[in-house]
Amino acid sequence: MRVIVFSSKMFERPFFERANAQSNHELVFVEATLSVHTVSLAAGFEVVCGFSNDTFDEPVLRELHNLGIRHVALRSAGFNQVDLRVAGELGMVVARVPAYSPESISEHTLALILTLNRKTHRAYNRVREGNFSLSGLMGFTVHGKTIGVIGTGRIGESLVRILAGFGCVVLATDPVSNPACEQLGVRYVELDELLRCSDIISLNCPLTPATHHLIDDNAIDTMKQGVMLINTSRGAVVDTVALIRGLKSGKIGSVGLDVYEEEGDLFFQDLSETVIQDDVFTRLITFPNVLVTAHQAFFTREAIECITATTIQNVCGFETGTNPQENLVTTAMLAN
User: Fold this and answer.
1) Which member of 295, 301, 319, 326 is catalytic?
2) The three-state (H, E, C) secondary structure of 37-51, written as one string
3) 234 flagged as catalytic
């Protein structure tokens, strides 16, 4: 099949070529992000492969359908970038990569927690400048602290295993409890209790209508004074303007973000020679207790191998009519 891969990066191509060696699909890589302005590039292809920053809204999906595209192969676990109602109406098959080394993301979550807490990023820069003062670098012992995990799917479960090793008390909230987490001593509670009792809160849930701006002014008001908030899920789970208010008031003691709700205009590109036009983001990164990484939690060799292999598997499944059911994305998933 002819597959156009939008938002492609050079690092992905060798992995895709290895994964595709036995299938022999024709893969064409373009660096452009899919949008209403670039959708015409899909003319002559049968499958569109997109990433988390590509747009599959109604205008784009209808134009893709007009071009003969019947399959959207997402190389991401999240699917909030797709208007599933329209895709279903058009009879388009949408598949994703539901699990690609969940340890990659949970380990990055831990890296954000430890870096923010022990301020190793600031210490690194100080020592390079000959400043060996410890002033302002004091952290706390993570052992024994209460960690709230919002979302206990594969990634949340992996994070729980790590936190159990640290000797943390773990609270969790999820529409469906995970028995593996319960066996590790996790106690499932309502969101309000998790927010009130946690020293550190980690967001590991998908972005759905129910989780959009889950962390807003009311949620922040409920949290402990000086709480640490970590988001490696999807940017729009957090209301960034409310987050800034929480930082200014001191209610939020520190923040680690690997995602941002308007990241489509920023992440995965070099903007070091330009003036960033997003005033909210530029305000956010002025805080000394905020650490932002550019959606790199997934970025390990193991994860990329899994992403590309599963994406090719999904394309093959569409071609033969044998799509793995666990990889398909339908409107029913919006209710979860």
Assistant:
1) 295
2) CCHHHHCCCCEEEEC
3) yes
